[in-house]
Amino acid sequence: MEVSVMGSSQVNLGRNDLVCREVGNCSFTKSFNSNISSSSSSSSLKSSKLCIKLRSKSLNRFSLKASACSQPEPLISKNNRKTKTTDGVKLFVGLPLDTVSSTNTINHARAIAVGLKALKLLGVDGIELPVWWGVVEKETRGKYDWTGYLALTEIIQKLGLKLHVSLCFHASGEAKIQLPEWVSQIGESDPSIFFKDQSGQHYKDSLSFAVTDVPVLDGKTPVQVYKEFCESFKTAFSPFMGSTITGVSVGLGPEGELRYPSHHNPSKMNNYQGAGEFQCYDKYMLSSLKQYAESNGNPLWGLGGPHDAPGYDQPPMTSTFFKENEGSWETTYGNFFLSWYSEQLISHGSRLLSLASETFHDVPISICGKVPLVHSWYKTRSHPSELTAGFYNTANRDGYVEVVEMFAKHSCQIILPGMDLSDNLQPNKSLSSPELLVAQITSSCRKQGVEILGQNSMVANTPNGFEQIKKKLSSEKEMSLFTYQRMGADFFSPEHFPAFTQFVRNLNQPELDSDDQPTKQEERVASNHLQMQAA
């Protein structure tokens, strides 16, 4: 059977189409005053042709095909045996970054609802939802509008899915979500609230770590503003806390990750040649560096970053700072600078994890933050990509011990991406090792008792990625939840979705005694899946 959406506000539902019949019952309640967007041209979903909308003459034609039994049946057997993922790891799927638009409306609501129902039928445990600072607190500090997110949360609750919320305090070019307008206006008069590289280029998608506790936002510090945002979120979503909402992650930097924007100039990056640049040249970072240098008795070291570090597009091993033997990174000065640079990162992360833990301490949800997998140049002694990103991790020093200790101190979990990556598929020139880096971070988490929430790196772009993910889920005992990123046209494409369906089914194969094997009827039901095709 086929569900066709071609510019009509109605969806043609097959008589036995369980997915679409139940999705049709998902509505946005008047209490949330949801205004479903049907014409957002800025949506990344539209650009990727996942274009189910409610009203528009310019819609791309779209069909959702479902292989279904003549009589819908539950995915639970008669003895109520529920499937569980490998080693008890829960499986979540991330919603598109632009699910809620910059105007606080739900993009492609019908498509989202159908996709959520499909995931529910597959046996997915829950959903990850990005919640943007620039959408909720857009125009005025302290004025919050949660309309779109509340409506979406209600849909997720009705479907019986769990929800992990990602609080995003950064901007996203991909999702066309900016920082709050009032923050950008402050940045126009004081651009030093943003990161700055050696050439003077600012990164304006997140605030500099040096201003975390500086009252640069209308007399308040970013930490104070973030805390008020979290408190408003907690109040607005209190009916869902601990039931539908089971976890919250707090954005810790660029793209929500704990790192400097060391690779923010991709136009200058020559494939895997460069290792990024140090981001320490805004006036607040330089002021901090100057004070640190004077306190260490070397005031001249506080005038700027390393003069012999390479540019974005330069191979790091050709520079004096990162070269393998007798590089500046191994000198007394190198240790001074890299210690200060990483301390700024960890101090910032600790402040945000602390405010999140304090805000949500009395609700039964998990708190976490994302640590990036900066695996390029990992096989060198200096690990230049990690150093520019803020992780003082080299052949002589484990830079992740302090990071994991910070998460343990605040009883937070670590989100770790790249679970689909394998060493043998990395370009030789990058001297990369995602598997060894995952092992290093995991080892530190094991010692500190910090749980890991795994993620993949991208959809349908990593050969044998599903096999690698399952391998990680089976071997990493510290991992309690895995989030597959993320829904969209690529996710539901004929090339990807059947493989994802098989991946979920493989995860949902418990070790059974012979008396508890699934019946043929159960196997038939479990094999049902949805395939989304763009006509």
Instruction: Give unreliable regions as ranges.
Output: 1-85, 511-535
Based on CA atoms alone, the radius of gyration comes out at 24 Å
CATH class: Alpha Beta
The CATH architecture name reads: Alpha-Beta Barrel
Largest sheet strand order: 3-4-5-8-9-10-11-12
> Mind summarizing the main beta sheet?
8 strands, parallel, barrel
Helix tally? 15
Query: Could you tell me the mean pLDDT?
Result: 81
- What overall geometry do the principal axes of the alpha carbons give? globular
What percentage of amino acids are in beta strands?
5-15%
Could you tell me the CATH topology label: TIM Barrel
**Would you report the number of β strands?**
13
How far is it from the N-terminal to the C-terminal residue, by CA? 15 Å
Helix/strand order: EHHEEHEHHEHEEHEHHEHHEHEHEHHE
The percent range for helix content is: 25-40%
Task: Provide an overview of this structure.
It is a single chain. This protein has 535 residues and is α/β, with parallel strands linked by helices. 31% of the residues lie in helices and 13% in strands. The strands form 3 sheets. The chain has an 8-stranded parallel barrel with strand order 3-4-5-8-9-10-11-12, surrounded by 5 helices. Strands 1-2-13 form a 3-stranded antiparallel β-sheet, with no helix packed on it. It has a two-stranded antiparallel sheet with strand order 6-7. The chain is globular and about 60 Å long. Residues 1-85 and 511-535 have low confidence and may be disordered.
